[in-house]
Protein 1
Amino acid sequence: MHAQILVTSISSPPPSILEPVRLAVSQAFGLAASTAPLLHDIEFAYHFSRNQYHSTAILAALDQAATNQWLKILALTDVDLFIPILTHVFGEAQMGGRAAMLSMYRLADGLPDAGSGSIFSQRIVKEALHELGHTFHLKHCPDPACIMHYCRRIKDVDHKDQSFCRYCRILLDEEIARLARR
């Protein structure tokens, strides 16, 4: 399998965050990852009544815009995301599909301005790996330390590790092997 994972930004996340995410993605999934622009305008997903962007609509547009060169797509944005049944989401992914995204909008919550860059970066990487995990058919894990654990609060993100538990790692490796045989 020579397919790659695309790490891209939407709106205006600083380009400096893409490289650490790309490296973490490549290491965690054992696949090549690259950065490149893909989707520039997401105003079609903006909902005036909520002052937020509907992430599901953006995921569909990402999937449609990407070429077959990309096995998976991970988009980072700094806009506030929602799905209709929740007030906000840190991110969303197409379960077993190609596209995943995360918003940095709420990941700085509770951090002081000075000296919190590494915590903020860790939150971004953790949520990036979590959302991308869903595209490999990984569901939420009951292990609170696993990267696939569902986080209701930002504190939950801080408490989980930046790795898959043994069980999720096995499922991920099996899915990657299945994709390689296609």
Note: Residues 4-137+169-180 form a domain with the Collagenase (Catalytic Domain) fold (CATH 3.40.390.10).
Protein 2
Amino acid sequence: MAIKNYRVDDLDGTEGAEPHKLVLDSRTVAIDLSEENYGKLVGFLEPFFKAGTVRTAAGSGESETTKARAWLRENGHEVNDKGRIPDDKMALYRASLES
């Protein structure tokens, strides 16, 4: 007899959920979400992520800005050595990380 294991969505019981980790301030939560519910969560949080500033972990090395400048230059974009990187160029860099 075969035994089949699967994850279920912690919100609605949908089979085939994937594990995710949510962190806010000092609270960390592990939750299994279906693709649909994960999409809802991401859609809800997207404006907050866009408005915020990405932080790297302390001691992790190069900052996001340093990595973005290098990536932008390698991909034919002009970017200043110092100062703020324009939002449209940062969006290109961040999109490259998702693909």
Note: The chain has a mean pLDDT of 89.
